[in-house]
């Protein structure tokens, strides 16, 4: 059992509750609240210094992971030189379930957090390198903006279906710069049919294609306009809303481009980035996300721990002699890493003109299908293999070789 003084903190948004412990089940104070202000944090540090003088041992700071709320507090004590341990809420929840009575108060939670820490072995929450922290923040913001962009595209298309139903037959990518430029100038079939060929071609010219392409696209736009049956209800307001969505889409595209460039900038500070990019199927965006979430590969003693961190390890259900053979993945790790792995795996196993992008992963995926596994289950199993491949590459600091 750990025999050190502990500052146990139950973190909330702007004010938290803490208790000082001299050792296991020996609290020195009643639970007290403090605000997340420099003044209160400084006072809390003074109490830790006093406790260290009394016990001769440097206190540890223990708290539960609470997303953004716990990050500034954790960073503050790390910078002050204290060992900080951030517990998984699942661990403290398990302790809470042992209680016969259902009680949830911040003062009681500080005792539970301390008890979980004293009775178990936990590793220190070591701060990530600055470039990894920058990269992690950018990757997560990119994911958030990308979700907003996807939602905007769907709303944009729903308005477009009312105004210009056949427009999507002309452009494969409705949100490409050329398509958005045409729609901004000619947002309805009537607008296209009222324009001259020269006006339409002039709007297409920023695409920098051949003359024959301009002529072909103009013909296709006129045909689409002739065959479209738009809604004639509230058309002017729909045109106004469509142009608003076009402006929003262009703005979001610029934001995503800028964030992605910054992601690559920070990723290039790590020697692991080119190693990840050497794996067929791992693109620019997925490589930066995988790097941001894993950080230093030495944090994981084995590939099994890395797989568990990604949340793609199978959950176990066993009772008596029964042991389930149809278990879902745990999904208890990083959702960002899990999503990036899934995307990289799908890209790696995809068949192209010259064959699969990643033959090793493709062969493994086909083998799982031949064993009778559903496609999604086979993809997850292949993602598991890819992550073990990543672990080997980053641990050995050798790029992908292509050998099985």
TrEMBL record:
Residues 9-165 form the Transposase IS110-like N-terminal domain. GO terms for biological process: DNA transposition. Residues 275-350 form the Transposase IS116/IS110/IS902 C-terminal domain. InterPro entries: Transp_IS110-like_N (IPR002525), Transpos_IS110 (IPR047650), Transposase_20 (IPR003346). It comes from Desulfitobacterium metallireducens DSM 15288. PANTHER family: TRANSPOSASE (PTHR33055:SF13), TRANSPOSASE FOR INSERTION SEQUENCE ELEMENT IS1111A (PTHR33055). GO terms for molecular function: DNA binding; transposase activity. This is Transposase IS116.
């Amino acid at each position: 059992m750990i025999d050190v003084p502990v500052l146990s903190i139950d973190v909330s948004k702007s004010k938290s509750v803490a208790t000082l412990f001299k050792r296991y089940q020996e609290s020195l104070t009643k639970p007290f609240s403090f605000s997340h202000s420099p003044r209160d944090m400084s006072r809390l540090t003074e109490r830790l210094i006093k406790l260290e003088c009394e016990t001769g041992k440097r206190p540890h700071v223990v708290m539960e992971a609470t997303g953004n709320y716990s990050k500034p507090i954790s960073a503050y004590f790390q910078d002050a030189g204290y060992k900080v341990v951030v517990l998984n809420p699942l661990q403290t929840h398990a302790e809470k379930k042992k209680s016969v009575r259902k009680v949830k108060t911040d003062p009681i939670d500080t005792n539970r957090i301390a008890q979980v820490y004293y009775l178990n072995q936990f590793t220190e929450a070591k701060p990530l390198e600055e470039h990894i922290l920058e990269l992690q923040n950018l990757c997560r913001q990119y994911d958030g903006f990308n979700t907003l962009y996807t939602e905007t595209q769907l709303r944009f298309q729903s308005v477009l279906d009312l105004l210009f139903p056949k427009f999507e037959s002309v452009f494969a990518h409705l949100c490409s710069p050329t398509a958005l430029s045409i729609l901004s100038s000619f947002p309805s079939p009537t607008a296209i049919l009222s324009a001259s060929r020269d006006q339409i071609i002039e709007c297409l010219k920023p695409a920098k294609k051949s003359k024959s392409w301009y002529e072909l696209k103009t013909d296709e736009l006129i045909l689409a306009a002739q065959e479209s049956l738009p809604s004639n209800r509230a058309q002017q307001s729909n045109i106004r809303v469509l142009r608003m969505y076009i402006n929003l889409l262009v703005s979001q595209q610029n934001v995503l481009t800028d964030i992605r460039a910054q992601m690559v900038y920070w990723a290039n500070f790590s020697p692991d980035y080119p190693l990840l990019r050497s794996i067929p199927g791992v693109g620019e965006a997925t490589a930066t996300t995988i790097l941001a979430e894993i950080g230093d590969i030495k944090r994981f003693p084995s590939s099994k721990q890395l797989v568990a961190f990604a949340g793609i390890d199978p959950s176990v259900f066993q009772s008596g002699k029964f042991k389930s053979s149809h278990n879902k993945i745990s999904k208890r790790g990083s959702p960002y890493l899990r999503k990036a792995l899934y995307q990289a795996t799908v890209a790696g196993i995809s068949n192209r003109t010259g064959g699969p992008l990643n033959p090793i992963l493709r062969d493994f995926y086909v083998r799982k299908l031949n064993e009778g596994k559903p496609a999604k289950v086979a993809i997850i199993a292949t993602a598991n293999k890819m992550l073990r491949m990543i672990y080997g590459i980053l641990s050995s600091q050798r790029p992908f070789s292509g050998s099985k």
